[in-house]
């Protein structure tokens, strides 16, 4: 029973942490230069000034067809150039759009919250490994029940980054790959992050400035008799974001987050030392109305 209590304590602690917590620019159209052929009329006498003057004027008058085609090409290229392509520009577009959500949205619906700890990533003291796997199956479950939020307090609490009035402090240096696809009226932005370089990031740092992550401070706030956290190490990995941004308003209309927190915990329970390591994989989708 003591081993079972220890294992269930860890499962409950994880659940508590959970609740706290271009189209690439198409190559520019190749420059096309109209072949203007000068037809020499060998029968025209060189001494006819009127014809010579007319020919000279013809050479200086712009070809309206060529001019219109060039203007259309320049307009098309200018439109394509507006689609962000560099990591820096895509991150700037993303940050501007996602940080409009909390202050401007009328409703946010979290359509699902998925969470799992793959049993193959679980490491516990050998005597309770099987009990830990059983506890995970019992306590860590997905939720496909939609949650609808309509108040600013709910937005600030639930929408990433939770507990703040902003949603992203992403920097280009955090990004592994970024693409922006032009769909006509909308952009689809896809960002894959590098694994977080910061262990136990504070709010606004690294992954904790982009996702609703488990934080080390969460465990500081947990008070359970005979339980002491002697070491808490959390690292974020495999972060990714896919979202839709309206081009006209620059507002985000839906977004999907996915990331993994690697928890490495050293816990003293009563007179026993317990080490637990696990990967907590989460995924969330939000639909936004303005």
Gyration radius, rounded: 30 Å
User: In percent terms, what proportion of residues is strand?
Assistant: 25-35%
What is the averaged pLDDT score? 80
Dominant shape: elongated
Order of helices and strands: HHHHHEHEHEEHEEE
Structurally, how many domains make up the residues? 2
**Biggest sheet record:** 7 strands, antiparallel
What is the terminal separation in angstroms? 52 Å
Q: Any low-confidence stretches, pLDDT <50, length ≥5? A: 1-8, 14-56, 58-62
Could you characterize the architecture of this molecule?
By secondary structure, the chain is of the alpha+beta class. The protein has 2 domains: 2-21 and 85-289, no CATH class; 49-81. The protein has 8 helices and 7 strands, in the order αααααβαβαββαβββ. The chain has helices spanning 2-20, 49-60, 64-81, 87-98, 101-104, 129-139, 152-158, 216-220; strands spanning 107-116, 147-149, 175-182, 186-193, 227-246, 252-269, 272-289. Strands 2-1-7-6-5-4-3 form a 7-stranded antiparallel β-sheet. α1 (2-20) packs across α6. The protein is elongated and about 60 Å long.
Which helices and strands, and how do they pair?
Elements: H1 2-20, H2 49-60, H3 64-81, H4 87-98, H5 101-104, E1 107-116, H6 129-139, E2 147-149, H7 152-158, E3 175-182, E4 186-193, H8 216-220, E5 227-246, E6 252-269, E7 272-289
Helix pairs in contact: 1-6
